[in-house]
């Protein structure tokens, strides 16, 4: 039987026990429900989330706020309200989760990764965020790099340029954003979120391409014409060309090892 319209729910239970349920619908709209129980060998970890907001020059805890935690397997895994101290506690499997909540008519989606710690503070307010842009080959700072930060609706939040250390700082409200790196030959982008004070964010991107000239000569110093050459680069792929009548080849390539054959 071919089931064309199928939905799946994966439920977490205690001590690593999980229940996966398939809701099956075939092309004749006959329905069938099948469930399986299995154990993933993982143990729950205790997670404590604290929610804070900056108002009137002070930091306050956000109490009695509805919070939902979900994963890629469960649309709503766990729902609860923060206590009087702006905290909530739960037990979940190690991994990555989405934490949804609404404050002051704004919906937030904090991406929780248990590898970042089991006790995390989610800060709702504008804070100074420091960005560092590094070359993704040797992790050296990229200076003079122009960057644009936009929210998920496309509104521009900041337009900045890195200093000699590959850094820049900006006052950014808590939330989810996309940073764009302006390049002459392509546009790069990456998502990020800001939910903590004094946050440090590092991005690794390809270094700007530079014009590199390769000269081909014999041992006696005479030029080599019409020589087929293949350049194997780390970031720009294979480049096949020849020296033609100039005995030299000039390429715009990114920083990295170049193999020539």
Could you characterize what this model shows?
This is Carboxypeptidase regulatory-like domain-containing protein. The chain is an all-beta fold and 261 residues long. The protein folds into four domains: 37 residues; 79 residues, Carboxypeptidase-like, regulatory domain (Immunoglobulin-like, Sandwich); 80 residues, Sandwich (Immunoglobulin-like); 51 residues, no CATH class. Strands 4, 5, 8 and 11 form a four-stranded mixed beta sheet that branches.
List keywords for this structure.
261 residues; mainly beta; Immunoglobulin-like; 4-stranded mixed sheet; 23 strands; 0% helix
Task: Reconstruct the topology from this structure.
Elements: E1 3-12, E2 17-26, E3 31-39, E4 45-55, E5 58-61, E6 66-70, E7 78-81, E8 87-92, E9 96-103, E10 106-113, E11 119-124, E12 126-135, E13 146-151, E14 156-161, E15 167-173, E16 175-182, E17 187-194, E18 200-205, E19 210-215, E20 228-233, E21 238-242, E22 248-253, E23 258-260
Parallel strand pairs: 4-11, 12-18
Antiparallel strand pairs: 1-2, 2-3, 4-5, 4-8, 6-7, 6-9, 9-10, 12-15, 13-14, 13-16, 16-17, 19-22, 20-21, 20-23
Protein name: Carboxypeptidase regulatory-like domain-containing protein
User: Roughly what percent helix?
Assistant: under 10%
Q: The CATH topology of the largest domain is what?
A: Immunoglobulin-like
H and E order: EEEEEEEEEEEEEEEEEEEEEEE
CATH superfamily of the largest domain: Immunoglobulins
Count of DSSP helices? 0
CATH architecture designation of the largest domain: Sandwich
Strand content: over 45%
Low-confidence stretches: none
Determine the structural class based on helices, strands and strand pairing.
mainly beta
Tally of domains: 4
CATH level 1 class label of the largest domain: Mainly Beta
Question: What is the mean predicted local confidence, pLDDT?
Answer: 83
Described by the principal axes of the CA atoms, the overall outline is extended
Give the distance, in angstroms, between the N- and C-terminal Cα atoms.
Answer: 56 Å
Number of strands: 23
Largest sheet: 4 strands, mixed
Organism: marine sediment metagenome
Protein name: Carboxypeptidase regulatory-like domain-containing protein
